[in-house]
Amino acid sequence: MPKSHSDIGLIGLAVMGQNLALNIADHGFQVSVYNRTTEKMAKFLAGNPATPGGLVGATTLQELVRSLTRPRRIILLVQAGGPTDAVIDGLIPLLEQGDIIIDGGNAKWTDTIRREKALREKGLRFIGSGVSGGETGARFGPALMPGGDPAAYKELEPIWNAIAAKVDAKTGRPILGATPGKPVSGGVPCATYIGPDGAGHYVKMIHNGIEYGDMQMICEAYYLIRSLLGLKAEEIGAVFAEWNKGALDSYLIEITTDILQQKDPVTKSKALVDVILDTAGQKGTGKWTSVNALDMGVPAPTVAEAVFARCLSAIKEERVAAAKILKGPAKKSYRGARTALIQAIHDALYCSKICSYAQGFQLMREAQKEYNWTLNFGAIAQIWRGGCIIRAGFLQKITEAYGRNPRLANLLLDPYFNKTVKEAQENWRKVVALAAQHGVAAPTFGSALAYYDGYRTARLPANLLQAQRDYFGAHTYERVDQPRGKFFHLDWPEPARPQIQA
Ligand code: NBP
Questions:
Q1: CB of 228 within 8 A of CB of 334?
Q2: For 388-414, b where at least 16 C-beta lie within 10 A, e where not — what string?
C-alpha cells in the first residue's frame, strides 16, 4: 500500500534517473518520479512493479509536487545546462518556502552558484550534488558530493547516506554485492557535505578531471607495453591484473584488465580492443577542469594533457594522413629485460598518478580561497574510495596524508608520496626517455614528470622570461637581491643601459 505522500521526488528518467530512483526505493523510501516524455515514466514503472520503498508515477510537475511530503525534496537528473534551468523554472511556481531542489546532474559549478543564489532569494533551497559512478554507481551506490545550504543537506542526508556506496570502516575497501532489492548493509557511506553553493559540483568536476588523467595514463602504460615489448592485448591484461594487486589497485585498472581480455564478438578471434577505433569522445568536465586551472593560474598540466590527448585522438583522418609524411625514429623493439621494463612502466604510471592528484587537490585548494569554501581534502579523498570511477586503494593514502597535515601545500610534500616518488623516479625517467627515443606519445607521463621537476626546482628559467617581458613590454621584474614586491625596469632601447630604475 503506497504512502499518501512520497519521501522524495525525482525528475529525469534517463540512465541516471532510473537507476538512482531504484536505488532510493531499495532503501525503503517511496519515490515519486516524473519525466518530460511520459511514456518513459510509464515504461519504467511497468518494468519495476515491486520495490521495497515503492515508485509512484507523476504525469505533470504539479502532480509530482503534490505527491511529496514537506519540505519537498526533488532530485533533478536531467541534461545539464539549459534543460536543468528549464525544469527549475517550471518547478519554482509550484514550490513553497523551504522546499529543496537537488541537482544530481553534471552541472558546471558556476551554474550551481547562480541557481543556489536565485532560489535562495525566492525562499527555496538548492543542493548541487555530484553523483559519480555512472549507471552501476547510481543503481547500487554512487559517491555523492553534495554542496549548498547545510541545513537543507541535513534534510537530505539520511537518504544520501543510505544510497551512497559503502566502504569498510577498517580497510577502506568498497563493500560490494548489492543486488536489486538487496542493498549492502553497514559500512561508511561515500557521501559527505562538501561546502556551500557550488562546492559539491566543483569537487565532482575535479573528480572527473582526475578521471581523465587516470584513464589516459593507463592508456599510455598499455601503449608503451604494446609498442616497446610487442605484447598482445590479453598479455597486457595479465600485467594489469598483477598491477591491480598492488599500489595501483583501482576500479579503472580492474576494468582495463577485463577490457584487454575481451574477445571481439564479431571476428571471434581478435581482441575487442584491437578492433575499436582509436578516437575518444568527451563530455566537457575535463575541459572545464583545465579551463578552470588556466583561469585560476594553477598548474594542472596532466589533466589538460589528458584532454588534449582525446582531442588529438579525435582528428583520426588527419593523423592517418600525417603518419605517411612525418617520420619518427626507426621502429625497433626494446632490447632490455621485459620484467624490468614492465616494472618501470608501472612506476611511471604510479608517479604520474600522484602528480595528477596533486594537481587536482591544488585546484581545490585554490578554488576554496576563490569561493570562500572550507574543503576537507581528507574527507573528499575518503568518499572517492567507493562508488566512483576513480575509486582506488591509493585514495586511502591521500586521506592519511591530509590527516597528518590538513594544510598540506602539495601531496608530493607528504612523507609517503615524497618517499614513493623518490624511490620510483629513476624508472619513471627511464620510461619517459624511452617513450621519446622510440617515438611513442606519452603526454601525461611526460607532463607529470615535467610538473614534478618544475615543482621541485628552486630557480626556474622564468628569470629570462621576465627579462623578455620587460624588454618588449616594460612589464618590470623583481630582483633576487631585493625584497619581493619591489619592481624594476630596464630601459632597453637606451644606449647608456644598463641602468636600474627603482
Ligand atoms: P541525459 O543527460 O541524457 O538527460 C536526459 C534526461 O533529461 C531525460 O530524462 C530527458 O527527458 C531530460 N530532459 C532533457 Br534532455 N531536456 C529536458 C527539458 N527541457 N525538460 C525536462 N527534461 C528534460 O541523462 P543521463 O545520462 O541519465 O544523465 C542525467 C544527468 O546526470 C546529466 O546531468 C549527466 O551529465 C549526469 N551524469 C551522468 C552520468 C552517466 O554516466 N550517464 C554520470 C554522472 C552524472 P526526455 O526523456 O523527455 O527526453
A1: yes
A2: bbbbbbbbbbbbebbeeeeebebbbeb
Cβ count near 191 (within 10 Å):
29
How sure is the predictor about 500, in pLDDT bands with cuts at 50, 70 and 90?
low
10, 16, 91, 102: residue to mutate for ligand 1 pocket, most atoms within 8 A of CB? 16
CA distance 168 to 132: 19
Establish if 279 belongs to a structural domain: yes
Catalytic residue among 108, 116, 166, 204: 204
Output the domain CATH number for residue 480.
1.20.5.320
State percent of the chain over pLDDT 90.
91
Q: How far apart are CA 134 and CA 139, in angstroms?
A: 9
Asked if 447 contacts 302 with a C-beta cutoff of 8 angstroms, the reply is yes
> Residue of the nearest CA to atom 1 in ligand 1?
79
Question: Does the structure show a pLDDT above 70 at 100?
Answer: yes
pTM above 0.70, yes or no: yes
Claim to verify: residue 165 and residue 313 sit in the same structural domain: no
According to DSSP H, which parts of 228-376 are helical?
A: 233-243, 251-260, 272-275, 285-296, 301-314, 316-325, 338-371
Ligand 1 within 6 A of CB of 87:
yes
Task: State whether 288 and 331 are in the same domain.
Answer: yes
* Angle 223-227-228 from CA coordinates, rounded to 5°: 115
Check whether residue 326 and residue 412 sit in a common domain.
yes
Specify the residue with its C-alpha closest to ligand 1, atom 2. Answer: 79
Beta strands 73-76 and 100-103 are: parallel
Show contacts of 317-323: CB within 8 Å, 24+ apart: none
How far apart CA 413 and CA 417 sit, in angstroms, is 7
* Residue with CA at minimum distance from ligand 1 atom 30: 105
Question: For residue 467, what are the domain limits?
Answer: 462-501
Q: How many domains, in total, are found in the chain?
A: 3
Give the three cell numbers for residue 20: 538512482
Of 102, 200, 106, 78, the closest CA to residue 155 belongs to 102
- Is residue 356 assigned to a domain? yes
DSSP character at residue 414: S
Query: Are the beta carbons of 141 and 23 closer than 8 angstroms?
Result: yes
Domain harbouring 103, CATH code: 3.40.50.720
Assess contact for 204 and 137: CB atoms under 8 A.
no
- Which DSSP letter does residue 56 get? E
> Once rounded to an integer, what is the mean pLDDT over residues 484-501?
84
CATH number of the domain encompassing residue 358: 1.10.1040.10
Cα-to-centroid distance, 83 and ligand 1 (Å): 8
Buried b (16+ CB within 10 A) or exposed e, 80-117: beeebbebbeebeebbeeebbbbbbbbbbbebbbebbe
No. of helices (H) and no. of strands (E), the chain: 20, 11
Q: How many whole angstroms separate alpha carbon 104 and alpha carbon 143?
A: 11
